[in-house]
Design brief:
By secondary structure, this protein is an alpha/beta fold. The protein is built from five helices and six strands.
Length: about 170
């Protein structure tokens, strides 16, 4: 299972979109405090996140708490940052990789990036653009990791695969 880690996320809509990506891909969601929104059952229901129950969500006071509970994360992690020296396409993801994403206004902490400098990746983009939206970045990276691992436990085709195509008469 892929592990998506949001470090101090600020925008609830981004977290909702990312939770939906996690639900659709069977990934877990790890949230590092402080959060810019409420994730109580009442708040989630009020926001209409009807897929939230499909996502294993874990909550941590800080990064140290996550690594204390999951020491294995340090050996298979990738940090996304616009400051990274290499493209996400160069990463060799496993089916159990931990993908870290920073808060919308500041990204991942500098000391964390420096500690794992060789595991920092970025999405290529035009030099004039500051960054992509957080939920878009997560989706791109998650699907690349899944592609590299042959989309484990996911349906690769929809109902149209087994239906007959319509016939057309050419006049």
């Amino acid at each position: 299972m892929l592990h998506i880690v949001l470090v101090e996320p600020e925008i609830p809509q981004n977290c909702g979109n990312i939770a939906r990506t996690c639900a659709a891909t069977g990934s877990s969601l790890h949230l590092i405090r402080p959060l810019g929104f409420d994730i109580s059952d009442r708040a989630v229901k009020r926001a209409g996140l009807d897929y939230w129950h499909l996502v294993p969500v874990f909550d941590y006071e800080n990064l140290d708490s996550l690594f204390c509970r999951h020491p294995e994360a340090a050996s298979d992690l990738w940090l996304t940052t616009t400051k990274a020296p290499r493209s996400y396409a160069e990463a060799k993801f496993t089916a159990d990789s931990w993908l870290f994403f920073g808060k919308e206004t500041a990204g991942l902490p500098l000391d964390f990036r420096e500690k794992f400098r060789e595991r920092c990746i970025r999405l290529p983009m035009a030099s004039e653009a500051r960054s992509l939206n957080l939920s878009n970045t997560v989706a791109v990276c998650v699907y690349e990791a899944l592609r590299q691992n042959s989309f484990p436990n996911l349906l690769e085709a929809g109902e149209m695969k087994h239906s007959c195509p319509p016939s057309f008469e050419i006049v």
